[in-house]
């Protein structure tokens, strides 16, 4: 690593380490989505009020209708075109996930540098696939809430998304993707804790995300963190940062080390291909 890249890496790490609570900088374009997320987090909000909020945000409306018509949410294939009916069909937790999707999508689209844009797109594809797998695994193999599992899958890498958005201020670091990946991986857990806390996400989701690097060795998965671990291990989209960081253990290799019974889960995933694909399409589009 050249001295210039080393200095940029150190400055990037220091800037995050010394940022005080409440000082995380989000692009202003995220304000509308954050307002939606805050409204959905209100436990007293009703579906009628939620529908009005969704209708006021065209991108969110489109995603809610798309998800309401997915195979996973609409197995009878009765087409829904009205936002109010879509809100009732989808429910509160998935709409919260879709609001978070908009936040992450705006972070992704804010990338101005070619290398960070590529990494962000790949990380986005992985997050969407992990979310879809987590939903199906929770639904088909556990008594856990599949909507919460999907939400956890969406946000499980939000910390690294945030760090990548901040890295644009360190051009020397952007020129060395291995050094960038190492820095982001080193800061990833702290960033995830800070960002999810800043967004005031449920403690159960935050705890599950932070614990999802390890596996409880039970089958079927016994906790939300185990569901996330399995979804990460079996995602068809590899982790772009781990691929660049020579120190990282790929999720699939970690699954083997933790003695994950992948064949059992693989059968469930194979039988749920249409559901998984429909969720991926609804989230990505």
Structure overview:
The mean pLDDT is 84. Helices cover 70% and strands 0% of the residues. Helix 1 packs parallel to helix 11 (177-198), helix 3 crosses helix 5 (83-90) and helix 8 (146-155) crosses helix 12. The protein has 17 helices and no strands. The radius of gyration is 19 Å and the shape is globular. The protein has one domain: Orthogonal Bundle (Hypothetical protein af1432), CATH 1.10.3210.10.
Give me some keywords for this one:
17 helices, Hypothetical protein af1432, mainly alpha, 70% helix, 285 residues, globular
Taken from the alpha-carbon principal axes, the silhouette is globular
Q: Looking at CATH, which topology would you report? A: Hypothetical protein af1432
Number of domains: 1
N-to-C CA distance: 39 Å
Which CATH C-level class is it?
Mainly Alpha
Mean of the pLDDT scores?
A: 84
What share of residues is helical? over 70%
- The CATH superfamily label reads Hypothetical protein af1432
Number of strands: 0
Structure classification: mainly alpha
Task: Give Rg in angstroms.
Answer: 19 Å
* CATH hierarchy: architecture: Orthogonal Bundle
N to C succession of SSEs:
HHHHHHHHHHHHHHHHH
């Amino acid at each position: 690593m050249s001295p210039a890249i080393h200095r940029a890496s150190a400055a990037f790490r220091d800037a995050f380490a010394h940022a005080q609570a409440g000082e995380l900088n989000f692009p202003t374009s995220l304000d509308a989505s954050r307002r939606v997320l805050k409204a959905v987090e209100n436990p007293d909000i009703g579906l009628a009020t939620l529908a009005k909020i969704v209708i006021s945000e065209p991108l969110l409306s489109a995603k809610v209708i798309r998800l309401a018509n997915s195979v996973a949410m609409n197995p009878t294939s009765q087409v829904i075109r009205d936002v109010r009916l879509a809100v009732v069909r989808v429910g509160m937790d998935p709409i919260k996930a879709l609001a978070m999707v908009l936040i992450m999508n705006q972070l992704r689209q804010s990338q101005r540098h070619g290398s960070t844009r590529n990494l962000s797109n790949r990380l986005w594809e992985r997050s969407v696939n992990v979310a879809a797998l987590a939903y199906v695994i929770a639904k088909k193999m556990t008594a856990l809430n599949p909507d919460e599992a999907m939400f956890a899958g969406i946000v499980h890498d939000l910390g690294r998304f945030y760090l990548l958005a901040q890295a644009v201020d360190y051009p020397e670091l952007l020129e060395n993707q291995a050094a960038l990946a190492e820095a982001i991986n080193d800061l990833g857990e702290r960033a995830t804790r800070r960002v999810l806390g800043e967004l005031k996400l449920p403690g159960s989701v935050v705890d599950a995300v932070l614990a999802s690097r390890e596996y409880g060795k039970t089958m079927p998965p016994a906790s939300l963190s185990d569901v996330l671990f399995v979804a990460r291990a079996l995602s068809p989209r590899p982790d772009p940062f781990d691929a660049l960081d020579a120190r990282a253990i790929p999720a699939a290799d970690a699954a083997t080390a933790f003695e994950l019974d992948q064949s059992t889960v693989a059968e469930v995933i194979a039988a749920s291909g249409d559901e998984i694909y429909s969720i991926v399409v609804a989230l990505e589009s």
